[in-house]
Amino acid sequence: MNDAEQAITRVHHEEWARVVAALTRRFGDLDIAEEAAAEAFAAAVERWPSDGVPPNPGAWLTTTANRKAIDRIRRETKRDDKQKEARMVHDDAPPEPLGAIDDDRLRLIFTCCHPALAMRARVALTLRLLGGLTVPEIARAFLVRETTLEQRITRAKGKIKAARIPYRVPTAEDLPSRVSGVLAVLFLVFNEGYLATGPDTDPVRHELTAEAIRLTRLIRALLPDDGEVAGLLALMLLIEARRTARVSASGELVTLDEQDRGAWDKALIAEGHRLVRERLAAGVAPGRYQIMAAINAVHTSARDVRDTDWSQVVALYDQLVRLDPTPIVALNRAIAVAELDGPEVALAIVDSLAEALDGYHAFHATRADLLRRLGRSRQSRAAYDKAIDLAGNTAETAYLTRRRDQLSSA
């Protein structure tokens, strides 16, 4: 890759969201903004290798994209109707409340992640308009056909226009709940990369975890005082730090207790720990992501699994259960309880979740492990069979199969 190609790749990561957001503010139309931005980057690919990279690449791209957008509007046979339609996105929006954060990218984030849109549409729009991923890239990431993904994005844009979803930062009263919706989108993207569900995909999708972290860093820069944004970033960093140790050379999942901790990314762990300490020092009651980050901080602080402070982990899960009393949180807490109070106590907790989690592979995998530790091999084998049937990740399936087969030969 030559210097111009490297510069274009770097600038695409740094400037795509800014260019799309600036065009959306000016023209009020997501289609125009996206297409003009793509045309501007295509022009850069064509011209920069011979003309050289401009001193201010972002300004060059924004200026070029603005011209492309204006050219498109002029080409429209019904220009006046098109311009009127385009202004609908933002002309009816009330003025920004005093003190609101004024950043075009933040406006775009809240537009893409508006609660009126289906979650799958929010994810697709966020990755396309903020991340700059192409439709084929997003379709591959979520194992859908390109035509399906294209239709999903088109319908979402249409709903934004039809419902006149405003292109603005929410009011101070609405901001916390709306931010949580944005973080949910980013965490979903991260989790799909962290534990990819497709049978024919890599078990860990680094491009998705990296993109989720990059976009969360962007939101962190725009909302530096939001504790849950910091918490989610810390959580992602501490999980991502273990990525290279999570899958063996043979393609099998390596569980936390068996991972080579020397292979963990020390820089990511240090950054994650720093964010967790900063939130603790803030003296503000932590939210869901901050507690989850703190749990991961305890795990990544231990040089050996035997050094893990399980009492602290359980105490943190106790906080999380009060804040987020879902069966999956209770299941994760039971795994920590097994280390503190033994597998029999944990199994009683897990069995109480059977009705809610019977279709969840991790429920059966947890039961299988607890039953194995209690010497109940026949029941353990049956639980492994259910977990294998439900698991979608290739590395996880390989791990569960090996553990089950070890029972068979015992």
UniProtKB/TrEMBL annotation:
Residues 75-93 have a biased composition (Basic and acidic residues). Pfam families: DUF6596, Sigma70_r2, Sigma70_r4_2. Residues 178-278 form the DUF6596 domain. It comes from the Bacteria. Keywords: Sigma factor, Transcription, Transcription regulation. Residues 75-96 are annotated as: Disordered. GO terms for biological process: DNA-templated transcription initiation. Residues 109-159 form the RNA polymerase sigma factor 70 region 4 type domain. InterPro entries: DUF6596, RNA_pol_sigma-70_dom, RNA_pol_sigma70_r2, RNA_pol_sigma70_r4_t2, RNA_pol_sigma_r2, RNA_pol_sigma_r3/r4-like, TPR-like_helical_dom_sf, WH-like_DNA-bd_sf. Belongs to the sigma-70 factor family. ECF subfamily. This is RNA polymerase subunit sigma-24. It comes from Amycolatopsis coloradensis.
